[in-house]
Amino acid sequence: SICMKTKFRFAKIVAVLAAAAAVLAACFAFAACGDEPTVETISLNVDSVKLAEGGSYDLSVTWTTGNDKVATVDGGKVTAVGEGSTTVTATADGKSATCTVTVYASEDTVDTFDGLVSAVGAASEGDTVVIGADMTVTGTVVLDKAVTVTSVTGVKLSVSGSVTVFDMTSGGATIDGIEIEKTDKTNVGGLVKMGEGATMNGCTITGRYADGDSEVVRGFTQ
Questions:
Q1: What's the number of CA atoms in the CB half-sphere (13 Å) around residue 179?
Q2: How far apart are CA 116 and CA 65, in angstroms?
Q3: Phi, psi at residue 158, to the nearest 5°?
Q4: Angle at 48 between CA 45 and CA 54, to 5 degrees
């Protein structure tokens, strides 16, 4: 039969990591119809996740944790246990891929926009401020010193009107892994303003069109 004469490859085992649907893919090979599949490679398109203490994300395949005092894995769900960092490993048929899990203590995260502004204002050079929950932006966070603002994975800042979310006037200022969503069509000159030497790492800016569907307002200015 055609089936017995043909060698083929079958691809893709998909696992969901976070609400944003991170994909874990594995490639299978068959020598002929009816043979058992074997995993050739396994990889992750997301290699890190940030959680607030007590938070969790669903994973799948076979996972193990390098430090169960930081994060545990049970039935595909990774649960943050205590502050620190550990490596979570996915394994399938002897092949593996890893994901770094960083857990922040609940007292070290901010859950309101006013709390974010206060924490940034009180932070010292070199400090990191962690956003721990979705929040609505009501003003501007001024980063006038070498402070990093990051967030746990999946957290979103929502903004409307012509508000600038981050004004990074310091060359040492950094925003890392921040997701900003513009929720209306009001024009804004820059959701993020970057001074010379300021840094954006892994940030996502999404939103509405300002003047019709053919025009997108710039998300940031320098």
A1: 12
A2: 31
A3: -105, 135
A4: 130
